[in-house]
Amino acid sequence: MIKKILPIVILLTTIFWSFYSQKPTIDTTVDTDTTSYSLANALRHLKVISEKPHHVGTEAHDEVRDYLFNELKALGLSPQIQKAESARLHYNVDATTITNVIAKIEGKKKGKSLLLAAHYDSVLASAPGASDAGSGIVTILEGIRAFLAQKKIPDNDIIILFSDAEELGLLGANAFVADHEWAKDIGLVLNFEGRGSGGPAYMFIETNGKNEKLLSEYIKASPNYPITNSLLYSIYKTLPNDTDLTVFKEDLNINGFNFAFIDDHFDYHTMQDNYDRIDRQTLLHQGDNLMTILSHFAFIDLDNLDSDMDHVFVNFPWIKIIQYPFSWIAPMLIFAVLSFIVLLLLGIKKQYLSVKGIFTGFIPFLIALILCPTLSFGLWELSITIHPDYQEITHGFTYNGYFYILMFAFFNVFLLTKVYHPFVQKQKTLDLFIAPIVFWLILNLIILYTWEGFAFMIIPVYAILVTIALIFIFNLKIEISTIICALLAIPTVYICIPFLQMLPVGLGLKFLPINALLIVLLFGLLFPVFIFKQKLRVSSTISLCLSVALLLLASFNSSFNKDQKKPNSLNYVYDTDQQKAYWVTADKVLDTYTQQKLGKTPLPIPKELKRSHYLSYASYVPATAYPKLTSAQYRVINDLSIDGMRYLTLEVNLHRPINTFKLYTNTPISLKSLSVNGAIINNENDKFLIQKKRGTLLNYTLSDTNKDLIIALSIKENDNLDLTFKEISYDLQKHSFFNLIPRTDAMQPKAFMVNDAVITMKRIQL
Q1: Is 705 exposed, middle or buried (0-12, 13-18, 19+ CB in 10 A)?
Q2: 578 and 507, same structural domain?
Q3: Do the domain assignments include residue 316?
Q4: 578 and 631 in contact (C-beta within 8 Å)?
Q5: Tell me: the pLDDT tens digits for 589-644?
Q6: Which of 214, 287, 270 is nearest to 245 (CA)?
Q7: Integer Cα distance of 423 and 576 in angstroms
Q8: Which of 69, 421, 493, 554 is the most exposed place for a label (fewest CB within 10 A)?
Q9: Are 410 and 465 members of one domain?
Q10: Which residue has the higher pLDDT, 696 or 438?
Q11: What domain range includes position 183?
Q12: Model's pTM, two decimal places?
């Protein structure tokens, strides 16, 4: 009986271990060692910093800046303020006045500096920013306190950068890199971020070159909980997010490490990114990352961390991280293929395998490979149909998303047991291994030519090949071979299972079909543990019961409440030229808050409104116009044409307090350079910065010092300049004449879009 249960116990224990080992447990004892990182101290800072939203242009933003300055001063440092106009090109030009807080710990030797970075601004306009990136700020504050208490003098200078305006386009880091004298001395950046409210803090290597030296030094630093792999950066680059580290990498070719967490992604950029919801273990993990890494990189030569070699790396049981060069990927794959062929021929010769059985074994695997992802896709679409409110969570990961991850996992195991049932009863067990191995080898061949960082997926192939070889060599009985299969699968499970959570949390539940695909691939290598004949019925029944129970739990937890707030959006848009106004929303499912202005049947946005740059709002209704909401006025200061180029300078006078000024082009334009209030974006290679048919040219966020704007453009002389000014103030709730009933405590502003805004628009043709 023990032999039959042991493989399941091994598998479940490994799954638990793969998650439990990802971050430290909280020490409930009172902090007594002043030289160690104190979670209590970090939380004390975080409570102050995240008391309220503190985006650029607010009083709270200035209060947080002053708090950080004073805390660095209290540590015995000499902090400084860097204030500058900063502009940076991404899809368009982002600009503002930034205020960075900077300090330095002097090192003993002359060489490259170590930079510790996190941004202190929160996102526009309702997020308190506890995780993003208050968590990074307090990690550095407390980490530096503990480091200084150790009375060690570092070899390298340690620069502390609490950057501003990261949320507006990495503008604080941009100004530091462009204008501060310390930037040229940096050899390595450690950047701390948050993209949710909890979970393990993943390490991402960012470099323009190769990763071998960076990875080797990271491993030498001996972090206690290194959660990383060479695939993470590839996934990260597919996301529409950068960090301050991007500026250092792109503009100064400086290497770095990002430490970021993504669990509870639904809190990201919302009012629920607050002090109470942040995971204390996550904050402790960030502190542990900093203290171990800082103690290493503060004392090594940072002059040359570049490398001519890339490594595959991944978390591995017992030894934390396994690594090997990219140059090994092809040989390892070739050796695996050759080993597979030898075992295949040997198995057929010794009658462990049968040719007919091998070909028959492809049937259940192919059926599963098609059925599981297809049904997962269909069931998730059905879930959205049943619960249309899920569409309002723009993160793509719902509050009950963890239930869905587990439910779909068990549902796919149930499907697999049913698909394999008739074949397990008739086929030799080893025959059923062959099809999955073939597909794993194909997967690794694809990886070889696409995402080489994913090449650690050859490890499961070697594990199953060794299992089969041991069965052949020692003629193992079924019970023993099943235990061997479970034991040798420990690395496979440890490596792969966390992806089943990480992918849908970070990228959205629409990736559940990818989870299904991975489960099929894993099941193909582990199926004896689940469905070895006498276990088949039990495995199937348990999987079905658990999937049904989890579906019910997901349904019972699908409603919104004060702890799971419903996101919604409402803006007032006023076209000052036409003197027409609209209430607009991006919501597909209206609630009592949006219905008070939009009713139950608002109009879909017509093409002519989209052409007027109302973004991608789902619906609108006409509203009462308030002419006193005047738009900006402009004056042409300079307008010259030289050598086929037109140079135009505008003075824009703002007639009401706003947070953001946007400049659009309504016609095709080729933009050579753009400056706003002295911050210049141009192209030194005599090429055009932006070539657009229509769309945004400039996003300028106003700080407390900005009243008017000076905007200079250089474009092709024959371009027809047809522009729209769009002024946005996040004060919809404050205007009494709108007579707006506030949200309930079960609602919050929707993330990733303009919200709670009064928007005025003016079109000009020059």
Answers
A1: exposed
A2: no
A3: no
A4: no
A5: 999 999 999 999 898 876 655 544 445 567 889 998 887 888 889 999 999 999 99
A6: 214
A7: 72
A8: 421
A9: yes
A10: 438
A11: 39-86+97-309
A12: 0.94
